[in-house]
Structure formats: structure tokens, C-alpha cells
């Protein structure tokens, strides 16, 4: 069954502990880290991840939308991340490889992320050592954006690469995912759905999470 990872980008940061409890039935908790350089927005850093870790035992899926991420891998690992995603567009390939090695040394699961402008083939140098690939279906930087239907092709291409080289690798999709498109995203090959407003904007977040899990069976 597909995993659901609510994004705290859509949570109330004045009541973050309570809002994390509201989504405790989810499989993972998605934490968006933005630096104002790689993307035109600033969110949170390692100290907030450290605080979150103290208040939940949920799997922390930390998405680093930051420039030159290798500089901060140790900090986020020590803060309590269970998985880190780094963007292939954020640095030279040798430094992306350094970031992945640092995750390995810290015992944290390793992932790379793709902006919509990036080809699925960009994951090929890394795929055999990854635990997850994250495909963005919006331009990273802000929550609440509209899902880019054209990215379904990228999801399918990434799925084919994963199936060929590393079948155990998760395929996460992030950006505008909700009830209207979840089935198409899953059918294209996703195994993890990031959902922000679709969960936190629902009257019953737990029911919204379960509906996303069951989306494949919806006719």
C-alpha cells in the first residue's frame, strides 16, 4: 500500500506539536527545508527538526531545498532526520555524491529530488545506492501550487529506472497531490505521496490520509 507523508509546510507553526499529532496516523512526516537561495522562500532549519524529533516518533522525511546541501547533511542527521532528500540541481554532481556518502555515514536513508525541469535520467549515476527518488510535480518553493500533469511522464520514467536498477527504492511525489490526482500518481509508479493542503485543509486529516492510501482502488 502507498505511504502518505503529510507536509508540515501546511501546518500551523504556532501549534506545530498539535498539528503533528493531527496527522499521526500517516506513514511519514514530510519536512520542507528552504533556504531562500535554491528556492525563493525560507522555512526552517536543523533546530526545528531537532525539536520535532523530541515530540514524535514518526519517520521524518526531510526534503532539503537548499543550495550546496553537503554542508548541512551532518546537522540534519544529528537533528533526527530518518531520510534526507537533496536536489540534483543544487550542486555539482561530485558534491551531491558527497552529500549521499555523508547520509550513509550517519545511517540515514538517502534520496535525490528532481525539479520539473530535470530529466528522469539525471538519477542514473546514483540510483543503485538510493533509498528513494523524489519527483516534484510543482516548482519547489511554496505550498498550495497546482499539480503539473506533465510530470506524470517523469514519474513513469523514474519508475522504469527504479524497476531496472533498484526495485526496492521508494518513489515519492510532492506537489499538488490530492484526491483528484492521487490515483493517477500511484498508477504512474509512486509509492509515497506527499500531501500538504489536501491533509491539513481537510476537516478530518486522518480520513484524508486514509483516502489517499486507498486511491489506487478508486474507479
Describe the structure.
By secondary structure, this protein is of the alpha/beta class. It has helices at 16-22, 46-55, 73-79, 93-106, 151-165, 182-188, 197-200, 205-213, and strands at 3-6, 28-34, 59-65, 83-87, 109-114, 132-136, 170-174, 192-195. The protein has an eight-stranded parallel β-sheet with strand order 1-8-7-6-5-4-3-2. Helix 5 links the parallel strand 6 and strand 7 (170-174). Helix 2 packs parallel to helix 3 (73-79) and helix 3 (73-79) packs parallel to helix 4. The longest helix has 15 residues, at 151-165. The model has no long low-confidence stretch (mean pLDDT 95).
Chart the SSEs and their pairings.
Elements: E1 3-6, H1 16-22, E2 28-34, H2 46-55, E3 59-65, H3 73-79, E4 83-87, H4 93-106, E5 109-114, E6 132-136, H5 151-165, E7 170-174, H6 182-188, E8 192-195, H7 197-200, H8 205-213
Parallel strand pairs: 1-8, 2-3, 3-4, 4-5, 5-6, 6-7, 7-8
Helix pairs in contact: 2-3, 3-4
List keywords for this structure.
alpha/beta; eight-stranded parallel beta sheet; globular
N-to-C CA distance: 16 Å
- Secondary structure tally, helices: 8
Main sheet specs: 8 strands, parallel
Instruction: Describe the strand arrangement of the main beta sheet, using strand numbers.
Output: 1-8-7-6-5-4-3-2
Q: Order of helices and strands, N to C?
A: EHEHEHEHEEHEHEHH
**What is the structural class?**
alpha/beta
**Oligomerization status of the protein chains:** single chain
- Beta-strand residue fraction: 15-25%
Low-confidence stretches: none
The total count of strands amounts to 8
C-alpha Rg, in Å? 16 Å
Q: What is the averaged pLDDT score?
A: 95
Helix content: 25-40%
Name the overall outline: globular
